[in-house]
Write a structure and sequence with these properties.
alpha/beta; Leucine-rich repeat, LRR (right-handed beta-alpha superhelix); 5 helices; 20% helix; Leu-rich_rpt_4
């Protein structure tokens, strides 16, 4: 079996492909390495200016090596083998978006450290209980959540799921890709959208009719 790609090797490949230096780059993509990356390590420390780091579609089991990434706002770890949020504590002050769909997460212990998180994409994980879902209430700025494909979601009727999830997370603006409409809010009208011109109104109405 081929030896796993190391973070050092993946960064070198990325630099050779893009012509950029990892130390100065604001976006770094180490996705879908072959052989896949199995371990994150302190080699990531060189990404001191990185604001978006992508490590999706590998075989990573644990998060580590992020302590020096003080500017990181978006972290993509979808399609790995992660089981927890351990290792992300150092990102509490900066991380705004976490993309972690298609992993093996059942418990949300430790997610509360990501106090500035606004966007959480964690579809197709293993969350089964509302008691775990409730831990998302500890994220005061969370406004966009993707949760389809978890056992908790699959066990509910769609309307019941949306109503209950929105009730438990009153600050949520978007759930599973759709705007959250609450019962105490009047429905949006074309006038509410305040388009720039009459043509824009026609476009909105036409799009709605054809949806």
């Amino acid at each position: 079996m081929a030896k796993a790609t190391t973070i050092k090797e993946a960064i070198k490949k990325w630099e050779d492909k893009t012509g950029q230096q990892a130390a100065t780059a604001t976006e770094v993509s180490l996705i879908f390495q072959w052989p896949p990356i199995e371990k994150m390590d302190n080699t990531l420390a060189c990404l001191v200016n990185c604001e978006k780091l992508s490590l999706s579609t590998n075989t990573i089991e644990k998060v580590s090596g992020l302590n020096t990434l003080k500017k990181l706002r978006i972290l993509s770890l979808g399609r790995n083998y992660l089981k927890s949020f351990a290792g992300m504590e150092c990102l509490g002050d900066t991380l705004e978006e976490l993309w972690i769909s298609y992993n093996l997460i059942e418990k949300l212990k430790g997610i509360n450290v990501l106090r500035n998180l606004k966007v959480l994409y964690m579809s197709n994980n293993l969350v089964k209980e509302w008691s775990e879902f409730n831990k998302l209430q500890e994220l005061p700025h969370l406004e966009d959540l993707l949760f389809v494909g978890n056992p908790l979601y699959d066990g509910c009727e769609l309307d019941a799921w949306r109503a209950e999830a929105a009730r438990r997370l009153p600050g949520l603006k978007k759930l599973d890709g759709e705007t959250v409409i609450r019962e105490d809010e009047p429905p949006l009208t074309v006038a509410d959208m305040q388009p720039d011109s009459g043509d824009a109104v026609e476009t909105l109405v036409s799009a709605e009719a054809n949806d």
